[in-house]
Amino acid sequence: MKIIATLASGALLCFALSSCAGSPQAVPTVTHTVTQTATVTVTATATITAEPVAPAIVAAPAPAPAAPATAVIPANVAGINAEALDDELSALGFKKVVYNSDTGKTVLLLSNWTVTGVDNAGAEQAVDKAVVVHVTK
Q: 62 — alpha (psi -120 to 50), left (phi > 0) or beta?
């Protein structure tokens, strides 16, 4: 009887354990996210072989500056209108004409002045040099 009781108590114990445990539970899944940063250092060595270079084209030297253009300053201009003489001097290529008043007044409107003389009249002069004309009212 003792064996039957032991078997019976073992069966009860086994039954009790199986009912306590219930149905087997699922094992939870654990996810781990790992982020890694990698740094790469690259060292490169290059060898360059140069191709022969064609000789540079040498430009021709700039021509020597031409001698300044010249013109003859008109002579026998006394008594003509200053504006008419200015037109004639411009047509000859003179770029700088200075008008001096015999009275010391400022010469503004050439048509109101009369020529009394020109410095270096009849002489050949570079057109980029000033021509001095004397005028009166």
A: beta
